[in-house]
Amino acid sequence: MTTETALKSSPSHPALVGFESEIQGLQETGQYFFQRGWSVGTSSNYSVVVNRSPLQLLVTASGMDKGRLKANDFVRCNYDGNQVDASNMPTTDQPRSSAETGLHVVLARMEGVGAVLHTHSVWGTLISDTFADSGEVVIEGYEMLKGLAGIKTHQHAEHVPIFENTQDIPRLAEKVEKRLHDESLPPIHGFLIRNHGLYTWGEDLAEARRHIEIYEFLFEVLGRKLAAQGKLCPA
Question: Cβ distance 48 to 28 under 8 Å?
């Protein structure tokens, strides 16, 4: 099946029927991110919220080539990240969802979040390793920061937390959730996982995609600047 045919096809699984436009949006996102080098191989995962009460989201299935997503390469999940059918009942006949579904669920639970996107770019990976010991990277002074929701000036300092990579996703999700709700720290638009990639979100898919573009631009600018100074990776 060609990419063009895949984008035009409709899902056959009952749990996905009715969400053709959401699925097409995620397919196009995957194709775009693949072309930019942000989602290569089978890396990355994406989701959109399709119901708020009860919470349900469509998540990319595990191990799929994000540049060639087919209409059935998605899973309908509930508040706990378990796959469900159209009646919100547990099911096991869908593909296995991304191993990182728990992170998508934690983010989707936040008010105003309609889409969550995760990329594995070269610059994001390098930046995540370079600043990991500090626990975050702070980016300020760039005009492109105004592309993040609610930011009105280039003088803004954007804090991007960095979490250690782990296969214990429930534990990582707990750490992320704690950071999201810690009012003593600056609010965030995304976070990095060390030697792994970027997570960001938005009120809808368009805003989440814009946040990916903004972050990836800023990571590359910062990375190139540090590389020119001989400071890209820690000693």
Answer: no
d(CA 59, CA 76): 7
**CATH code assigned at 164:** 3.40.225.10
Single pTM value for the model: 0.94
Measured distance CA(29)–CA(83) in Å, rounded:
22
Residue 61 within a domain:
yes
Per-residue pLDDT tens over the stretch 126-145:
999 999 999 999 999 999 99
Establish if 235 belongs to a structural domain. Answer: no
Contact status, residue 165 vs residue 97, Cβ threshold 8 Å: no
> Kind of pairing, strands 45-52 and 115-119?
antiparallel
Residue 197 lies inside a defined structural domain of this protein: yes
Please tell me the total count of domains within the chain: 1
Asked if 75 and 83 count as a contact pair (C-beta separation under 8 A), the reply is yes
What is the DSSP-derived secondary structure letter of residue 9? -
134 is in which domain, residue-wise? 3-228
